Amino acid sequence: MATVSLTPQVVFSTESGGALSSATILRFPPNFVRQLSTKARRNCSNIGVAQIVAAAWSDCPAGRPKSGGGGGRARGVASSHAAAASAAAAAASAAAEVSAIPNAKVAQPSAVVQAERNLLGSDASLAVHAGERLGRRIATDAITTPVVNTSAYWFNNSQELIDFKEGRHASFEYGRYGNPTTEALEKKMSALEKAESTVFVASGMYAAVAMLSALVPAGGHIVTTTDCYRKTRIYMENELPKRGVSMTVIRPADMDALQNALDNNNVSLFFTETPTNPFLRCIDVELVANMCHSKGALLCIDSTFASPINQKALTLGADLVIHSATKYIAGHNDVIGGCVSGRDELVSKVRIYHHVVGGVLNPNAAYLILRGMKTLHLRVQCQNNTALRMAQFLEEHPKIARVYYPGLPSHPEHHIAKTQMTGFGGVVSFEVAGDFDGTRRFIDSVKIPYHAPSFGGCESIIDQPAIMSYWDSKEQRDIYGIKDNLIRFSIGVEDFEDLKNDLVQALEKV
Prior knowledge:
The protein has helices at 32-35, 38-44, 49-54, 82-100, 110-119, 123-129, 158-165, 180-193, 204-215, 230-238, 255-264, 285-294, 307-310, 344-357, 363-373, 376-396, 414-420, 436-445, 465-468, 474-479, 496-507, and strands at residues 3-5, 11-13, 25-27, 197-201, 221-225, 246-250, 267-273, 298-302, 320-324, 338-342, 400-404, 427-432, 450-451, 461-463, 486-490. By secondary structure, the chain is α/β, with parallel strands linked by helices.
């Protein structure tokens, strides 16, 4: 077996011909970790073994053990492989950058944030680069933001810890309170939503719970809508009364009912989706924001069905926006997460509650969401186009009784959607011209969409809410208009003609 010596301490073992293979074996001397720059170790521990091996060594700060042989300064790389030399040079540059920063976890200056906003003028560029291209805290030459898997962060000495506690030293402390990978994700979402701040949490449902718990006081009053995610309603109906919080439920378009609730209650918050689940009703955000603010109430919009590509509720007057990042934000049906965005004054209260209670987003999940967001604008534009075509097709089909889609002129809030959305989303709800069993036959006959809950991913998903979401409560189905023949169709990024032909053959079974 041939060997290629890169340094006196590190040996790459290769199969043959001196070329690095997928079976490369890395051999580390006992003191190798101690020879790494303390800053490189702290910030590059998850960048990848190849960069760590190639990282330049620099002097350790006072109080840290120094390596032997010249105080641990960067050593030359003796290698006949251009790729290895290039990697070493890149990593040396990264390590030098880290060593030049007192802690390498400095707070992002406002000038960097402004520079990023000036550079990235469109949602497309923001989705790809925001939070990562300029000023990210992790010093690395990697294009992608590394996953930092750690439960805690260490300090050089007690004074550094005191400085951190008193706000003079920027760092992290414990995994529940912050993570560099998650921080990059939060900055990206803030850029897309035009928010001052964002906090990411373990799920969209927990984002709603944390927001309500942090911002609605005991004995407060909230307003919400009949059409919404059922589990959110269950939480508000069953859990909030335990804190003395009362609730008014209105129909999405009933502005008289909203005004009446604001006039006759000390309303803390109006919490609504737009578009709503599953009928895709749309609320005039600017109008309700003015109504709420005139009475001292906050407005929180669940914008999961829209995504920040199609709608920016904060720019319309909303105080907060929440997302189930599981859906369009991550977009690949492979990760669960949620977030709250808005004014820093409000998001900070949610963050403090979150730090106490938990519900932390795993850094690996943060990485998956970051990766998914780079194609957010492409996916959403594709889904917008296909969904509109599908809604138009279904509205003309003889075996479809009704279609719910804000892009259709027949939708009751089409005029609102046109003014506050740049696209109408990738979910189309419709009622089959048949009974419960006929609708089941249709669902069971489709071949491309998965029969599953959730929406917003690359793969199309279809479900019958009477079974999927409301099977345990016929009474609630009747109250909220969930008919036996209702279908919710989340359109992925497949070809329109393929999806249409699949639905045509399935509708023949009705």
